[in-house]
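Form 7-S
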Amino acid sequence: MNRTRRTAAAALAALGALALAGCGGDAATTTAAEGGERRVAFLAPSTSLRALAYDYPNFAVRLQERCGDCVVDLHTAADQAEQNRQGEQALADGAEALVVVAVDGAEAGSLLTSADAADVPVVAYDRLVKDAPLDYYVSFDGGAVGELGGRAILDAVGDRAGQGAVVMLQGDPADNNAGLFAAGAHSVLDGEVEIAADRSVAGWSAEQAEVEMAAALRELGGRELLGVYTSYDGLAAGALEALTAAGYSGVPITGQDAEVAALQRILAGTQTMTVFKDLPAQARTTADLVADVLAGEEPETTTTTDNGAGAVPTVLLQPEAVTKADIRTKVLDSGYTTAEALCAGAASTLCQEAGITG
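Output:
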């Protein structure tokens, strides 16, 4: 087995062990290459399924392809205080770079200050950390994400825009991305359709989204519900539970992340679209950046982002809208998920009807 496959197997095995352990506070490590080690810490929220399923494994594999003596240590935390402690320990243990998916971007500054004092570069991954020294930021264009969702709602509403109102479910206020998504969606929807309710959902929780959606329905005041903008597939799932309980069906609803369950809802017609972000590509891009930095080279970036402490060199990737017609070409053909996973169980018939399977 070559080194890349060894590392991939180790990353996935560590992921499985982490899931069995319940994640919080645990750490997993890729297999070290022969010889010396250069340690890189990947810190993520224990509740982030995408970080564990896509980001860390793809980052670890790509980094060791580029840096044969690099070892990636995965740390997961339930809150920012725990993540800060994990990062401080990683610095004390000799980590040469930190990749941080902040639990709370407003509270992660002390860790970045410590890394800066130790001259250890930090990459804010997906979530910006504000008001602290930051070396790099890699994410998707958050404004574009919101614009795609907002445009999908307007397209679905069509000439009925003046006949009712829209509900918006935004993400966790502690996540800087939630504000970017919201601003993008509002830039499309404001002035075009009435917004009956605009609610934030703590922790990006599907369960809390159901609660917020039920409350939003009470704010309609007799107006027709034209559509529901949500900024994450999990929020869409929770919103649909509330809609179903209230007797609604066929309401246009958006999401983000192209989760398998969301793709199945799109095939079934209960979710209108999702915003697809190529998470493996984001992880590989970040690994390339870290490898360049560790090699003493200047990494390629696309722009800068003001995080309140300066202009941070930034790589912004572009999202794509996915509807039923796009699932094969945009999601399956990219390798993001497989037809076997998408079409399992009750979704088998839906896949056949959509021409995804024979």
